[in-house]
């Protein structure tokens, strides 16, 4: 199941209003969704979008991919920077943990190999 964080449109004709939801990518845009993360009114602008940061971080950590528009909203709200900052220390800790394990392994001794001679047939 591929989870996307995307907008679902509510509101009437020529008066858009969007929910930011985590949804299975196979479902319709305005169809079933897993969880509502926030909402966005384009008339008020991105700065006034309401997003539950805990839920957004939860879904990003679970591997949900945001749509282009949601990525722009998250970027303006500073969520992508927080997500990137939370991922970097984990990667550094993994690299530090991996290095001592690699150093503890004994080096395999190299055995001399005999060179094969090629005979040329005439």
Characterise this structure.
The protein has 122 residues and is α+β, with helices and mostly antiparallel strands. The chain has a domain at 3-84: Ribosomal protein S16 (S16 Ribosomal Protein, Chain: A, 2-Layer Sandwich), CATH 3.30.1320.10. The protein is 37% helix and 25% strand. The chain contains three helices and five strands; from the N terminus they run ββββαβαα. It has a five-stranded mixed sheet. The mean pLDDT is 83.
Query: What is the molecular shape?
Result: elongated
* Strand count: 5
Series of H and E elements: EEEEHEHH
Structural class: alpha+beta
Percentage beta strand: 15-25%
Please compute the radius of gyration using only Cα atoms: 26 Å
State mean pLDDT (0 to 100 scale): 83
CATH first level of one domain: Alpha Beta
Q: Distance between termini?
A: 64 Å
Quick summary:
With 122 residues, this protein is an alpha+beta fold. It has a domain at 3-84: Ribosomal protein S16 (S16 Ribosomal Protein, Chain: A), CATH 3.30.1320.10. It has helices at residues 53-61, 68-77, 79-104; strands at residues 3-12, 15-24, 35-40, 50-51, 65-66.
Sum up the structure in keywords.
122 residues; alpha+beta; S16 Ribosomal Protein, Chain: A; 5-stranded mixed sheet; 3 helices
Topology (SSEs and partners):
Elements: E1 3-12, E2 15-24, E3 35-40, E4 50-51, H1 53-61, E5 65-66, H2 68-77, H3 79-104
Parallel strand pairs: 1-5
Antiparallel strand pairs: 1-2, 2-3, 3-4
């Amino acid at each position: 199941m591929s989870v996307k964080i995307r907008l679902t449109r509510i509101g009437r004709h020529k008066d858009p209003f969007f929910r930011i939801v985590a949804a299975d990518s196979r479902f319709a845009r305005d169809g079933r969704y897993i969880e509502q993360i926030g909402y966005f009114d384009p008339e008020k602008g991105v700065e006034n979008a309401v997003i539950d940061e805990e839920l957004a971080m939860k879904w990003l950590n679970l591997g949900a991919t945001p749509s282009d528009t949601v990525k722009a909203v998250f970027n303006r709200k500073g969520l992508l920077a927080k997500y990137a900052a939370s991922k970097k220390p984990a990667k550094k800790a993994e690299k530090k943990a991996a290095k001592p394990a690699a150093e503890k392994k004994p080096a395999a001794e190299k055995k001399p190999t005999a060179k094969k001679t090629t005979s040329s047939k005439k």
